[in-house]
Amino acid sequence: MISIRRADTSDAQALSAIAAQTFIESHGHSAGPADINKFIADKYTVETCRADLANPANHYHFIYYNDRLAGFSNIIFSFPCINSDLEPVTKLERIYILKEFYDQKLGHHLVNLDIELAKTNGQKGIWLFVWKENERAIRFYTKHGFKPVGSFDYRISPTHTNPNHVMLLEF
Q1: pTM for this predicted structure
Q2: Residue 14 belongs to what domain range?
Q3: How many domains does the chain have?
């Protein structure tokens, strides 16, 4: 059974835990351990997650599989794409699924929800960054109609960046 619900500030602990774990699973080999650990320590503390959840611009959703938290997404409406003049557009800030749930196709449910929310809120598209070495994610977004529109170096630490595609889906 699959269910999705909007996350709120009471979910900060759960978001912190799943965000750290999914980041390690998908990007843990993209930089040295010190850089990855610093990134997680800076971005995914309970306090940071609580502040993110409290920010009304963020729209976090949790997806559950058989009542187990399996992933999450966050979108931000009317967030201009750095490589497109299309406006207004939604930024797909984060979408992560725990590796153990990959075969359940849960990411499709989350991205479809995020796309529908963007359309319902009068957006003309949705965009995101995706690490150029994450071939699985690139195939996933391409399957959903996203197209590369540029590139961006995503900062993991003061001394390390990961090359990312900027991908856009126009409605």
Answers
A1: 0.93
A2: 2-170
A3: 1
